[in-house]
Structure prediction request, 178 residues.
Amino acid sequence: MSETRIIVDHLRLEYKGPLKVKELFKLIGAWHKEKGLQKKEDKNFEQDLPSGKSIEYEISYWKKISYYTRYIIKLRALFSELKRVQLVHNDKRITTDEGKVLMYFDGIIEHDHEHRWDDRPLFIFIRTLYDKFIYKAYTERFEQRLTQDVHDLYHTIESFLNTYRYWRIVSKVPHFSH
Prediction:
């Protein structure tokens, strides 16, 4: 069995207000392609409720760092009370979504993901010594890179959501807009 360690545990991002959900998913997809990560969609669940649409989206990104190590970034996004609304931005009427967003980010390092050292107890002991003493400097660098990538994704999404923070939803379009 491979050794799995959680490096970043439940980094949380909350947002409430207008946003474009499709644009958010495009941004996340562009980010993972830019970083050269593989992706696996774990859960994509959507439900229409009287209070609005509810979406649960869980995805894992991974990258094989060496023959022995890979890191995994897990993103869990919960959208609730999503409704289509009209707002005015730059004197133009725009139809967009409004709701609550809750995201959790996890960063995990997995050693011996191909299970090469799991055959015998002696191999597991040697692997443990190898991890603790010989490979330790490399592991620390991989942990720093993983932490940096998780925080980069967090800040990318946070800056995207902050662009919508000051958009105001209007029930009636003002006279000055076209």
Remarks:
- The chain has one domain: 3-162.
- Helices lie at 21-35, 121-134, 136-162.
